Amino acid sequence: FSFSWQTTFQDGGEEVEDGAVYNVTLKKVQIQQAANKGARWLGGEGDQLPPEHTVRQYETSKIRAIKAGTLEKLVENLLTAFGDADFSYISIFLATYRAFASPRAVLELLLDRFGNLETSSHGEVANLNSLESEMVLRAEIASVLRAWLDQCSEDFREPPDYMCLLKLLDYLKNNMPNSDMESRVQNLLKQFQNQEVEAVDGFCSTSSSDLVDGEELEISNPEEFSSFQDHVVAEQLTYMDVMLFRRVVPYHCLGSIWSQRDKKENKNLAPTVRATITQFNAVTKCVISTILGTRELKIQQRAKIIEKWIHIAHECRILKNFSSLRAIISALQSNSIYRLKTTWMCVSKDILLMYEELSEIFSDHDNYLTSRELLMKEATSKFANLDSSEKENQKKSQKRLQLQKNKGVMQGTVPYLGTFLTDLIMLDTALQDYIEGGLINFEKRRREFEVIAQIKLLQSSCNSYCLIPDQKFIQWFRRQRHLTDEESYKLSREAEAAADTNILSPKSQKSMVKRISTLFLGTDVFTPPKEQPLKSSPVGGSSGESTDSASVSSCEFNHSETEDVCVTPVSSPEDPLKKSSVGSDKGYDSDKGSISSDKGSGSSKGSIFDPGSGSDSGFMPTRDSGSVPGSAPRAQPVYNRQSEGSCIIRVSMDGLHASVYKSILITNQDRIPDVTQRALLKHNLEPDAVEDYELVQVISEDKELVFPRDANVFYGMNSHVNFDFILRKKA
């Protein structure tokens, strides 16, 4: 027989039920069969039809995907999703439900309301007199629980009582006694309890930096650092990054979860994301300390250390470790390192070219399209795909890559987590949690899952790494004393005096100086005195760039609803595309370290965490996972661009926290009182004080637009400059 299939999808509209709205898609499958091969099957004698004749059959099925619903309906849909052909629903729900419900609430609904064989009103098994119906329900419940334990076992880690796990165990003993599921839950409970005991026992003897008793933090010895081979340093940084990234709990990355971390009772919220931030900052601070920490270094010696870090960054690229790669490049683009023009002039041309190629990976062109495409291209590839425009670098890259291949061990991919946090933050800002009628907007969760699925894919790829920890390097790395921003800038000024405008500076990669922006929050950022902007730059750099445009400071990832960001220029006003938004007005906390830039004058346009800026295509990820075929996504609002009657603006409070911004979604119906009230709420201020404030749009350093009392913000704002606003108390 000769068959061919052709599948098409058609929008079937919506179906509304009590407490739920469903998107309907009609799936039409056309099956073609050669008639001369199947005439007998069709009832014919011999080959009665011409050989070229074909018979077409059509089969149409309906796919129902829940769009919005009450929590009860969403939980019930876990049991019916497969029947509706919504095969990804369970995974999407489990990955995102923490944004609108607790594990206990979901478990109680699942087991008490829908899983109780005596009282269940579940549609498929309404007649509980049937043994077959009971078996169907038991199988559905078991399938959901199995997926829950497989994909999100961390949801049940609730020391010291483990109420959800005990409730689940009790249910299994009563309804599925002696099952594999019961044994699995018992083992998971023991595992959590043992890990809790180990954590308590080791608490007193383990510090945040994993130092051995008696050791103290120290400034790096250049000779000791030079003794580590470049590839060893890269492998050890990758080893640490892999261990942390594999432990990231995906739902910790959701904007609505991350938003709660500012509350006092949530200081330990999302620890897996905080750990990656701490490591990223540790790498960046280590780079700066090794370059500036020793005053006695000569310019050539300092240049050699910069060259070594560039080589280490290149080794990270070969290992597909984009996290430490970005951390190193960020440090080299920090204020205190970037301004060392004489030192950079001593860096060899080949290595500078290598540095520029590595920096270009994170170009902000088209919503950081290069890094996004490269990341997904290499997500499941065995080895890095290395290309270089410089022949010598190409030879070195291929040689190192061949050595990796000869070992016969595949590599995973460690991403820069901020890329995904960006998308999740903007999704959380742009899409509503609830729709009309108070129904949970599950379409928003489907969009978030597209990002979560990429994180999970990369976590899975990290299992391919086979790296052995080098305790000598790890201990050296852990005991490094990190310089504060003020210390590093002071040492930088001691190493090289104020910039000579006739001396060339290293090329400024606009993608890297805009590296960490609206997700970060910290304390006490040091702002060094401004130096004169340069008139030229070496190695292909753009003219008019400011030497002290960006620096590394300590802060913390921030979420979408309370998005904090400092505005820092990375170029002269003549080049608005080379401006960044980074940092915050609060300084370093050893538990919450992160990367930001020093506050400066000017406005920002585009950043690592402003995906909408500089991109006509918007920030939203594609709908190629966890979505329903045939449902085209609508354009969503983004920062710095008005689209379909809405956009995202950033509002700061005039005065003490003038550099901390909050993202606000506005529409063409919003007037000044509405926007002012939402901004006050975002800044944790009393919303009733609307009459005491005026809203101002920052046009430039010396110009601003003050809105009248009842103005329409969407139509009244200047759409040709940054969408940055200030709330100022009326005189």
TrEMBL record:
One of its GO terms (biological process) is Ras protein signal transduction. This is RGL1 protein. It holds the Pfam family RasGEF. PANTHER family: GUANINE NUCLEOTIDE EXCHANGE FACTOR, RAL GUANINE NUCLEOTIDE DISSOCIATION STIMULATOR-LIKE 1. GO terms for cellular component: plasma membrane. Residues 62-193 form the N-terminal Ras-GEF domain. The keyword Isomerase does not apply. Keywords: Guanine-nucleotide releasing factor. GO terms for molecular function: guanyl-nucleotide exchange factor activity. Residues 229-498 form the Ras-GEF domain. Residues 527-639 are annotated as: Disordered. Residues 645-731 form the Ras-associating domain.
